[in-house]
């Protein structure tokens, strides 16, 4: 029975690469095939040139001077088992290395396995190239390694498949946290290095201003890179400068200095998100956002400089006069979210705690008395404040408790008048009107006059006789 | 269930009229549910017969030190705490905006509906209640705009809503005129004054709904000056009495780097300024911004109450604040203070010790970096009625837009309300939010310890709080711009 020798598939690729490195002298084309078991044939073929006669002369026809039929001389099924080795085939490559143009070296320098026997061979490792071409380089793809010595830019390696391009290894420094921040500068220092793997489409995936950046413009376009970039979202990490506390007030000046540094990530529409129709002229240095493709950083309306932390309680005037401006960023329901009583949390903000500080319900009395903000701007005194106070037991309808609650004053009755004049809103948050009428009605009880010296009864009577009638009989009122 | 049928009908009619034109044109909606559970401590009045309390006089002490107020021959009374009441609030919001697009440019419909279906009615309006906050059609063209339905307004008199219509003209870009009118609603209740919400809260609540009408004129001088004047009157529908009659003035000017704001609210019924305010703010240098404010405030009361006739007095206040965004760092600092002096009350006994002034101060710091943020602030607030000292701190981490997790803590000491003793609230909790596309989640939990000093009749207790919510936005956009619930 004839034995058929097989070659492990795992060995095919290294073999192909090795053969491609051995090279045919054609820039973009190497040779690949099933791996040839050099070691087993070491005694039969003791020299390299026996099979690779064309290497020194760059004769592509004789780089592989043996053929499968030559093998069959021995592997005929009787002397040796038949083999299905088919010999080398062309493999696309982005290598420009040729044996003829390279200073002559002994084959073993590049192809013998370190410490191995003469015919224990391997593909020529890139580290061997670096020994002479970049002796100080830490790795094959490091900055400063003269890539073009051995490789062509990807756009010129037309025979490479899209899969091969997609499989290009990523240099170590590309994974660094700050790489995106520094990659522009690196591209100016070592543009050739970028061009080995990248085309214009690699950059325009993120750079809205790709057509205005010289280093990007100098890159060729490439259909394969375009396909790989299509559909991938851009990456726009926030620069450290944007996180500084004074960024909002500083960004205009920096934009004036170098609008193109903004243009990498921002479109003109980014400025309009906050500035609206008043977008500064300098913004015209930015690209317009394209209808499709990279959109750049979508700027949510940033908090304007005037919106200081206290603005939440001091925005009344701005809102009163500035509604057209307010609506540049806010929907009208933004106002009603807070101003319609117990607020719902703001789902769209990174702080859902709402208007009041946490647990305000247990510590709101001082703010209420101080009237720093008007409780009544959002809450009904009668149906919110008083209702809750009644439920809790602080509030009281009708008859008073003789000052039992306000126990800090020895005789609350003597103190309450001044307190009430200074904080009547707070009184009304617990007491309804009948609480006062026991003493202050002109119809019954103690009939104590609650009106101050500046009170003008006629003016009130003109506007609301009905409120006068709560305490006065009609006969007690003068005709208005 | 409390529901304003007239408002709903108005909105439904408005939306129905619009819906035929709006079909297929575009809408944006947000539905959200928000719940909160917390505990509050109840307070009850207790008493003993006068002769069972040692001592004499109107003010005595029980054996445990509790101060009681006695009526000779009657009872001695005091307030003590009584257990904790659990509250569950559950609100549901539906916001819809629909627009006709190119079919009828400028036509849109808006609805904001809020359901309140808590499991307990301890918290105000936490059970079985549906509010129509807004529901109107709007038609905006270059030069003018018309709205009809349940409208809300934001102007110099604050925020309020009503059922009716408004017409705005801004044919000249620098000038804006607006008139509005309709049936008025009670402030912050989304219901008429004659509705059950007020009538159950006050025996003298109005029995008649009321009309509202107002006129507003505003103008701009470039980006230098803008101003707004408003007159508004609310009157019973039977015209027997006014509810309110007010004027408002707001102006804002940019004078170089200085922003000047002037605001006034004037009550024509009592002829006094409820609010008169001037504020100047300006960046100085090196990230420092200062603002100074002078303010007069007198409380405003509607004419259906007797409170205005009790001659409440106002106060005058000066306020200063500094904000420093430390250049080149991620730190901002703020500090400020205010002092207010009340007007003469001409009431109460001379010897009574009630302050006629108040002051407050605050300081805070904020740091952010790499998505982390740290906030801390301290506030002191003293006045004639209550005093508070305390601080809050938070450390959090943001994960992109709309997502964060934060740890909060606070400690507050309060005393006042003319009561003996003090209360200390300290505790904190964890909260967070997350966004999955148009779905947003928020939630948090916290524990607080509430303890009392020199208040023997009050028991220390621990308050547990939980809150959570979910909202979902759907529909289309009016343009390529992304709009969220409140901010774009």
- Strand portion of chain B: over 45%
Give helix and strand order of chain B, one letter per element, not per position.
Answer: HEEEEEEEEEHEEEEEEEEEEEEEEE
Class per helix and strand makeup of chain B: mainly beta
Helical content band of chain B: under 10%
Shape of chain B: globular
Gross morphology of chain A is rod-shaped
Question: Biggest β-sheet of chain B: count, sense, barrel?
Answer: 22 strands, antiparallel, barrel
Helix content range of the residues of chain A, please?
25-40%
Secondary structural class of chain A: mainly alpha
Largest sheet of chain A: 2 strands, parallel
Strand fraction of chain A equals under 5%
Question: What is the CA-based Rg of chain B, rounded?
Answer: 26 Å
Instruction: Give average pLDDT of chain A, whole number.
Output: 80
Q: Uncertain spans of chain B, ≥5 residues at pLDDT below 50?
A: 20-24, 478-488
Distance between the termini of chain A: 130 Å
**Could you give the order of the helices and strands of chain A?**
EHEHEEHHHHHHHHHHHHHHHHHHHHHH
